Amino acid sequence: MIFAKLPRLETERLILRSLSMHDAPDVYAYSKDPRVAQYVLWDAHRSIAETRGYLRSVLRQYRAGEPTTYGIVLKKTGKVIGTIGFMWLNEENQSAEIGYSLSRIHWNQGLMTEALRALLGLCFRRLALNRVEAQHDTRNPASGRVMQRCGMTKEGTLRQRLYSKGVYVDVDIYAVLAADYGRSVDEKQINFM
Asked: pTM, whole model, 2 decimals?
């Protein structure tokens, strides 16, 4: 039921919250950038109507109580600058996969590391998961560095795992276990609301 009303997460510079249709201009502003979409499974948005369609699908997931996406809001501007959330969650095995994207003008500032730490806090402290994993296109090593900074361990490379934008791509898979979580993250930096 936590996914029907996502708890708001707050870090030093960010708020992670549910998305709404009012966020369409902000989401479109970064999701239309081909560089942002280059190594993810979705294509750059061609219109704000496409962004609204995406937001409608996220809202349906909220209503259904399905694992879904947070908007990443930069506190100093109040704007949505990215998303982070669940690709899937398996209750039986207490595991999940997470994914994220961020506006290009906010790259290399430690913001995604901050957001990922907050989401991992939710995964281990509130959802009582045992394992959280994430993967990235091997052509985007910066994403792997974010995972490493959050205490995730590279478990290997899956060759040609995904077919994306007309090519088969290799992905590196990372994971962190509940037993490792407390050693890798300063939980005092995350507020749950």
From this structure: 0.92
The single-letter code of the amino acid at 169 is V
Instruction: List, as one string, the DSSP characters of 75-109.
Output: TTTTEEEEEEEEEEEETTTTEEEEEEEE-GGGTTS
**Buried/exposed code over 144-178 (b: 16+ C-beta within 10 A; e: otherwise):** bebbebbbbeeeeeeeebeebeeeebebbbbbbbb
Measured between alpha carbons, how far is 141 from 123 in angstroms, rounded to an integer?
Answer: 24
Tokens of 61: 């997931």
Q: Of 18, 19, 93, 96, give the one whose Cα is nearest residue 51.
A: 19
Q: What CA–CA distance (Å, rounded) separates 142 from 35? A: 13
Q: Per-residue pLDDT for the chain (193 aa), expressed as one digit of tens each?
A: 688 889 999 999 999 999 999 999 999 999 999 999 999 989 999 999 999 999 999 999 999 999 999 999 999 999 999 999 999 999 999 999 999 999 999 999 999 999 999 999 999 999 999 999 999 999 999 999 999 999 999 999 999 999 999 999 999 999 999 999 875 555 555 565 5
Q: Are strands 153-164 and 167-177 parallel, antiparallel or unpaired?
A: antiparallel
CB 9 within 8 A of CB 70: yes
